[in-house]
Amino acid sequence: SIAILLYLARKFKTPDHWYPSDLQKRARVDEYLSWQHTGIRGKGSKLFLTKVLLPLVTGQPLPPEKLEGVTEELNVVLKQFEEKFLQDKPFITGSEISLADLVALVELMQPVAAGYDLFEERPKLAEWRRRVEEAVGKQLFQEAHEGIFNMKNL
After folding, report:
1. Are 56 and 154 in contact (CB under 8 A)?
2. Domains located in the chain, CATH noted
3. In angstroms, rounded to a whole number, what is the distance separating the alpha carbons of residues 144 and 63?
4. What is the spatial distance between Cα 67 and Cα 61, in angstroms, rounded to a whole number?
5. Rounded CA separation 62/50 (Å)
6. pTM of structure
7. What is the DSSP secondary structure assignment for residue 38, as one 8-state letter?
8. What confidence tens digit (pLDDT) does each residue in 127-150 have?
9. Please, which pLDDT band fits residue 31 given cuts at 50, 70 and 90?
10. Of 47, 61, 100, 123, which is most buried, counting CB atoms within 10 Å of its CB?
11. 152, 134, 151, 51: which is closest to 96 by C-alpha?
C-alpha cells in the first residue's frame, strides 16, 4: 500500500530521492501517488481483470468490443501519465527515481501480464521503463515480476 511505502521510507530514512525532502519534488510524488489509484491502477487492473481473470473464472471468451473499451480507457490514462507526469523528464520528479516511478511501473506491469505490451508503441514510456529498471537493478526487477511474466502459463 502507498501508506506502508511512505511509512517505510520515513522510518528507515531511505535515500532522499525515494521520497524527497524538497517540497516541490515531494509534491510531485504525492500528486502521482494520489492520482494513480483511479488512473493507472484503476485502468490497468481493469484490463488485467477483464482480459485474464474473468475468462479464467467464467470459462467464457472475452467479447472483443469489451476488450477494446477497456484498452482505450487504459490508453487515455497512459497518455495523461506521459504528458502530465513524465513530460520530458527522465523520472516523475526529475532526474532521480522516486517511489512514484516505482509504483507506476509496478502498476503498468499488470496489463503487460495480460498480454498488452503498452510500451511497444510508446518510446517515451519504454525509455522511462528502462531507466526505472536500471535504477532498481534488472535482476531485482525480474525477480519481483516473475509471477507477472509467467501469467501466460495460467
Report:
1. yes
2. 27-150 (1.20.1050.10)
3. 32
4. 11
5. 8
6. 0.91
7. T
8. 999 999 999 999 999 898 887 777
9. very high
10. 100
11. 134
Backbone dihedral region for residue 115 (phi beyond 0: left; psi -120 to 50: alpha; all else: beta): left
Q: Are 40 and 129 in contact (CB under 8 A)?
A: no
- DSSP-derived 3-state class of residue 1: coil
DSSP 68-127: HHHHHHHHHHHHHIIIIIITTSSBTTBSS--HHHHHHHHHHHHHHHTT--TTTT-HHHHH
User: CA-CA-CA-CA torsion for 123, 137, 22, 106, nearest 10 degrees?
Assistant: 60
C-alpha cell at 103: 509504483
Distance CA 129, CA 27 (A): 22
What does the angle CA 129 – CA 53 – CA 42 come to, to the nearest 5 degrees?
A: 50
Phi (first) and psi of residue 91, to 5 degrees: -135, 170
pLDDT the model gives residue 114 = 87
Burial class of residue 67 in the structure, from the number of CB atoms within 10 Å of its CB (0-12 exposed, 13-18 middle, 19+ buried): middle
